[in-house]
Amino acid sequence: MSDTHPEVAAAAEIRARIDTTKPHSARFWNYFVGGKDNYPVDREIGDHIKEIFPGLVDVAVTSRHFLGRAVRYLAGEQGVRQFLDIGTGLPTADNTHEVAQRVAPDARIVYVDNDPIVLAHANALLTSTPEGRTAYLDADLYDPEAVLKAAEGTLDLSRPVALMILNTLGHVADHGRAVALVQRLMAGLPSGSHLVISDSTATSEGMIAASEAYNASGAVPYYVRSVEEIAAFFDGLDLVDPGVVPVTDWRPEPTDPAAPAVDAYGAVGRKP
């Protein structure tokens, strides 16, 4: 009989699943936003892409600012108290639960990812105000019904939920499949729920070249899409003003730093 503590064994199993020989999207993005949870292989492709297209760093940073503004809008102006953040990535500053609970201490947040390195860092996410709650699910975007079922352990799906999918859907190669996955998730949420999406877009030669370089690196491919394809994720929803726009143009705040033009679009839509 083994004397190994179950938590120690689980941590070892997670570490064994982490491949440090190939770039990884969550670690790569973490490097771009100034985090420390990345490896030499991630920094190498990151530096290479900076040479090809320095603007991708701006995409990473401004997409993070978009997340904050969207969450503050939903928690503050719309009274949303439940957030389902799929493809959460690695924790940095101002994660969804931190922003939401700053506005509404009783907010509940469920993070979803199925990546071993994100799972290994999940404890850094699992903080909460006493009034609220934060949970992490090791679950798969490709099984929306299982995600929703698991989220019921923390969220009340009979009440509005903000579904957050930021810089994640590019991993789904087929656009039609990506749209269907989003629709299946929204189908399980009630009227008054919101969808928040942002993603890199094929709106410049530089971004397209950066995407091709990343996909040639051995990492799991990530596909940039047209603005029209981003807009299609919101079919059937009521778009919140100003609609599908560059992330820097979505309800900018007076305290925001001057924003460069970026190849990333985002929007918030409400389920009627």
What's a quick, concise take on this entry?
The chain has 272 residues and is α/β, with parallel strands linked by helices.
Task: Report on this structure.
The protein is of the alpha/beta class. 41% of the residues lie in helices and 15% in strands. It has eleven helices and eight strands. The protein has helices spanning 6-17, 25-32, 40-52, 55-77, 96-103, 116-120, 122-125, 144-151, 175-187, 205-215, 227-232; strands spanning 82-86, 108-113, 133-138, 162-166, 194-200, 238-239, 245-246, 264-270. Strands 1, 2, 3, 4, 5, 6, 7 and 8 form an eight-stranded mixed beta sheet that branches. Helix 5 links the parallel strand 1 and strand 2 (108-113). It is globular, with a radius of gyration of 18 Å. The N and C termini lie far apart (56 Å).
User: How many DSSP E strands?
Assistant: 8
SSE run: HHHHEHEHHEHEHEHHEEE
Q: Strand content of the residues, in percent?
A: 5-15%
Mean pLDDT: 87
Number of helical runs?
Answer: 11
Q: Tags for this entry?
A:
272 residues, alpha/beta
Write the layout of secondary structure elements.
Layout: H1 6-17, H2 25-32, H3 40-52, H4 55-77, E1 82-86, H5 96-103, E2 108-113, H6 116-120, H7 122-125, E3 133-138, H8 144-151, E4 162-166, H9 175-187, E5 194-200, H10 205-215, H11 227-232, E6 238-239, E7 245-246, E8 264-270
Parallel strand pairs: 1-2, 1-4, 2-3, 4-5
Antiparallel strand pairs: 5-8, 6-8, 7-8
